[in-house]
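C-alpha cells please, single chain.
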Amino acid sequence: VCRPKVVNIKISRVMNIEETARVRAIFAHNLRLIRLQKGLSQEDLAEAADLHRTYISSVERGARNISIDNMEGLAMALGVDLRVLLNPDTYTP
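Here you go.
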C-alpha cells in the first residue's frame, strides 16, 4: 500500500492581533483626521464612498475590520492615496 508522505509545515502569521489592531487604529485615526480637515461629515463621506454613515462611524472607531475595497473607496472619496490613510507617521496613540 502506497501512503502519501505527511509534511508538517509551520505557517507563520504575517501580523499578530496587536499589529492588526494597530493598523486598524492608524487607518481609523487618519480617516477621521483627513475627513475633518476636508470639512466633511460622516454622512458626506459615506455618500461619496457609497457606504452607510454608521459604517463610517464604526470604521473611525476601529470597530470594523474594513475590506481593502472599502478602504480604496474611502481614499478615493477623500481624494487621497490609500497609503496616506495607512501612514503610521500621522498616528499618535
